[in-house]
Automatic annotation (TrEMBL):
Name this protein carries in UniProt: Major facilitator superfamily (MFS) profile domain-containing protein
Record's keyword annotation contains Membrane: yes
TM region positions: 73-100, 147-166, 172-196, 208-230, 242-259, 309-331, 351-373, 385-404, 410-434, 441-458, 478-497
UniProt domain Major facilitator superfamily (MFS) profile: residue ranges: 73-502
Keywords noted in UniProt: Membrane, Transmembrane, Transmembrane helix
GO cellular component: membrane
Record GO terms (molecular function): transmembrane transporter activity
One family name in Pfam for this protein: MFS_1
Bilayer disposition of the protein: Multi-pass membrane protein
UniProt-annotated location(s): Membrane
Annotated source species: Ancylostoma ceylanicum
Main location (coarse class): membrane
Amino acid sequence: MAWLAARSAPSVNDLMMSRLDRSTSLDPPPEKTIFRIDLNEDRPIPSATASTYAPSEAGDLAMPSVLFPSMRLMLAAMLCCCFITLSISSSNLAVALICMTSCPHHGYGGDLKWKTEQEGLVLAAQNAGSLLTLVTGMWADRLNGKWMVFVALLLCCVGNLVLPLFAADSFWFAVAARIAIGASDACLMPACNSLITRWFPQSERAAAIGLISGGRQIGTLFILPTAGYLCTRKDILDGWPAIFYLSACISILVTVFWIPFGADKPAKQCCISGRERNFIESRIACESIGKRTDRSRRVPYQAMLRSRALWASMFALVCHEYPLVIMLQFLPNYMRDVLEFAPTKNGLIAALPILCLFVSKTVSSSFSSYLVTKRNMDKTVVCKAFNAIASGGLAMCIFIVPLFDKTRAVYAVVSLCGAMIFAGMHTPGVITALVQLAPPFSGIITGWSFFAVAWFSIGNKILTKHIVQQGAASEWSMVFRVSALVAALPVFVFTWWGSADRQLWAAPSSKASVCSFSTYKKSRSSAGTCSQADVRYSFIISNSRLMCEEWKTIALNPLPSKKTFQSGLMYTVSDNRLLFPQKGLGTGSLAME
């Protein structure tokens, strides 16, 4: 839905004739034209007085936000910090486990005498907690997103404190702590996607997703080398426990900033300007996302279950996340076992592929938004192209990693970095497509998708720990080959059945239409020459509200009696008609049918 900006500001005496046309809407058009313009009606022309005109600078429309130039950017930055916190809490165990547990095969000594199967359970416990996305996703579009994010941050803090305090007593405390981290992910991801649909227009969502989800890589980039360093410093809180205490402190810090500045929607943000708030609300009005408290709209479960586009996107997401579990959770173990890196070096080099992932997803998401908005490319074509390149390149790079041993460790690291560069292109691919399929039900779709991801991640971690018993190169080779096969599947499935277009079962629950009002004016210059200009105004009717060009919303029930556009064009409401003065032609009226 596009905001209207007049190319010039005609006065009443300049208006010669008017017409109203219906243009293309973002959603399926209504069955009949909602508004029409009638000319030469026998109606009195409202008298024009000084009070009926508003200057172009009226109101707070041009006032910037007090604390931030764009509240959308600030919200994206805060959500990015939330994902940094979650990523730190999720990835800290990957390095800490090396110095927590003893590994007699490679000379690593630790305080905890856990078996390989127990390590696998601790690692898989996080994904067990992520299974709650099935529940949180069902309620993400109805509960307040701000407080769902707060609960996620609180669970991160609790999980990071429990593990170092009680893990020595029983590994089941470590399992419970990691379940809390997984539950945090289950709260944050659906809430974040729901917030994105309420804060960002369609054209900005790919870039917003890239920025927000980039927090996962920033957090990993920070914690991997930091954890590797703390592992070697027994004088700092006994080494590995300091990793989790640091993670808890970061969770508390982000929570302190989120509570006052986070908001469920623009209307609840205390620092947002009226201009930006109405800009956001008008852009998403035709998507008919609705209020969270609205219970009248039923969720089309049957249509969702029959949607090939939804199933293709979910399948592609599972295939995308499957190899990333190896790359994010087991990469330090692989570098320890096969490439034989020391803990500090391990943490530093393991961060390189994560850096490549962050850069790739940020650049590719911005480029995707550029192609859609500036080059007018079809968003489904763009999503499929990025996703096909990502899946094919990821599979190829993962497949060649086992070809290099410790004597050619540089080539192995380069291959891993290449895999992450391609993996980042999934962000403007299937991840963006999932948000675009059904904005009113983004929380439910996110819950279903990441519930499936959690199940396969649990199986992936248990299977990997079952295969890798001695840390031999042949064992890791099998792990990477299986991951490469899974990564290649979306090249065919998503390219054939995937889509980034809004589905019919997610159509607006109320009529919405975009109309334009054109006027012609004549002006005479000082030299005596005449010129004629076409001035075009747009009206968007959605949910019984008229969005007009002065960045304000007019309720149609009850109708206001008199209103003035910011440009100075006056109209009066009478008998459910918007009356426009027409010089020499009577009064043009905009009437609802």
